[in-house]
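Postdoc handover notes: sequence design on the structure in folder B. Input tokens:
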């Protein structure tokens, strides 16, 4: 049976998945999975981009027989620079690299912070593409002088697949120099920070057939992984919110026009492009990154835990003992996360979590309470009540976190599908091929194709009591 190939590259791993329609339902099969392990060389953190390219093509080749198309999505903000011959100028640098330290302030000396938001509608994070490029400009890096083309990372893979240089819309909007009012790169902003705007290719929409790879059409999905993930949300109502739960927690609502005003600026939310005329009003939260780094730290000390084991330890730990702000700057770089969590708790005059279970309980409860605060902002900014939250991605595997979230936000939580990003990627390809009519039809099919679990709020009063304490702790420095 004919199928499409969804290549889903995440910050922790990559997957190549076959997806097809059978009796009105979506079916999927993972044909290739591989780790995405950054490389530290000297003092810089790089993506192992050539290894990823090898794995991507190996996976596509495994799924090639009967493939009607292939689409690639990847994480946002990171990029590659090509020289005039189309070759990599250097290996792409990881968004958690320290080169952006101080870059935001450097940019704001040239363009006021409020103006940057007015031009882009994107939340301020030091890992944004704008500050990565600004760090090169501020250091007078020769890489910029050698660059003839800028490509976001999924655009780089598409270029290698097809030979065509283009910037897919949803990924371009994560840079903080795409202007949703002009529907183009903000060239005035780029020039103000010393970036040659001529290196940026034409922006094209999801659903575009870019070219072919070994005879297989390459169709652009929402190339930003969150954009594809949101396509894969079986929204139960137009006002429902979504949470794409993985290394990052992306929590938001789907809207038709960006919300760029004083309130959204103060809330530091983002407006990222979606598919078929939509935008994603959302907030980036640190997500399972904290748990991933804790697990890696304990593994380095010869204490190997599965996520199920860590969840079990968290369940046994005392509730509401300590909280952290998941977005505290100290948690951004890789490293000894348990120690940083303890340092945060000590700094904010809380009991210091000592055991693995206490650390994990602190992470899960803090994430659930953070989600509550974000939903309050989103409801106010969108002017609509939010009746329920849909959780997709790897975080759906944690029943504990899903139930905590339902309790904290006092709304039902609908969990699933796990592989929403790959499914959303595939659905955009299928719409382009004419297999599915439109986005609404795709979501209807998704809703009946994959198991969904609903978590009803239970211990609401207890979570209400600790929410104010969490907010006060989060604001402490």
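Designed sequence:
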């Amino acid at each position: 049976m004919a199928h499409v190939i969804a290549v889903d590259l995440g910050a922790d791993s990559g997957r190549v998945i076959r997806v097809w329609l059978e009796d009105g339902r979506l079916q999927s099969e993972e044909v290739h999975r591989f780790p995405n392990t950054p490389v530290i060389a000297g003092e810089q953190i790089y993506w192992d981009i050539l290894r990823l390219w090898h794995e991507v093509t190996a996976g596509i080749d495994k799924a090639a027989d009967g493939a009607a198309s292939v689409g690639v999505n990847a994480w946002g903000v990171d990029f590659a620079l090509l020289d005039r011959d189309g070759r990599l100028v250097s290996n792409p640098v990881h968004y958690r690299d320290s080169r952006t330290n101080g870059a935001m302030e450097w940019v704001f000396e040239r363009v006021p912070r409020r103006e940057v938001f007015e031009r882009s509608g994107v939340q301020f994070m030091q890992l944004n593409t704008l500050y990565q490029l600004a760090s090169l400009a501020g250091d007078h890096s020769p890489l910029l002088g050698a660059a003839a083309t800028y490509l976001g990372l999924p655009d780089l893979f598409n270029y290698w697949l097809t030979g065509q240089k283009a910037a897919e819309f949803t990924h371009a909007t994560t840079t903080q120099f795409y202007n949703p009012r002009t529907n183009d790169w903000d060239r005035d902003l780029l020039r103000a920070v010393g970036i040659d705007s001529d290196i940026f290719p034409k922006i094209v929409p999801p659903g575009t057939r870019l070219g072919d790879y070994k005879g297989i059409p390459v169709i652009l999905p929402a190339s930003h992984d969150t954009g594809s993930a949101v396509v894969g949300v079986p929204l139960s109502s137009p006002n429902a919110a979504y949470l794409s739960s993985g290394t990052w927690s992306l929590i938001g609502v789907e809207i038709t026009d960006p919300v760029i005003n004083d309130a959204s600026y103060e809330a530091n939310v983002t407006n990222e492009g979606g598919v078929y005329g939509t935008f994603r009003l959302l907030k980036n939260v640190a997500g399972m990154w904290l748990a991933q780094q804790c697990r890696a730290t304990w593994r380095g000390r010869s204490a190997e835990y599965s996520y199920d084991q860590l969840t079990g330890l968290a369940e046994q730990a005392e509730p509401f003992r300590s909280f952290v702000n998941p977005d505290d700057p100290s948690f951004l770089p890789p490293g000894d996360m348990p120690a940083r969590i303890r340092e945060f708790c000590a700094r904010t005059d809380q009991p210091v979590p000592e055991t693995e279970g206490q650390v994990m309980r602190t992470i899960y409860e803090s994430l659930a309470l953070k989600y509550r605060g974000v939903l309050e902002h989103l409801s106010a900014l969108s002017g609509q009540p939010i009746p329920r939250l849909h959780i997709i991605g790897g975080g759906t595997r944690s029943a504990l976190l899903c139930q905590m979230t339902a309790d904290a936000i006092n709304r039902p939580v609908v969990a699933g599908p796990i592989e929403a990003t790959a499914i959303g990627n595939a659905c955009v390809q299928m719409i382009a091929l004419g297999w599915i009519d439109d986005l609404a039809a795709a979501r209807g099919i998704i809703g009946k194709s994959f198991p969904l679990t609903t978590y009803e709020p239970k211990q609401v009063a207890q979570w209400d009591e600790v929410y104010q304490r969490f907010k006060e702790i989060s604001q402490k420095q």
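Context for whoever picks this up: The two ends are 57 Å apart (CA to CA). Don't rerun without checking with the PI first.
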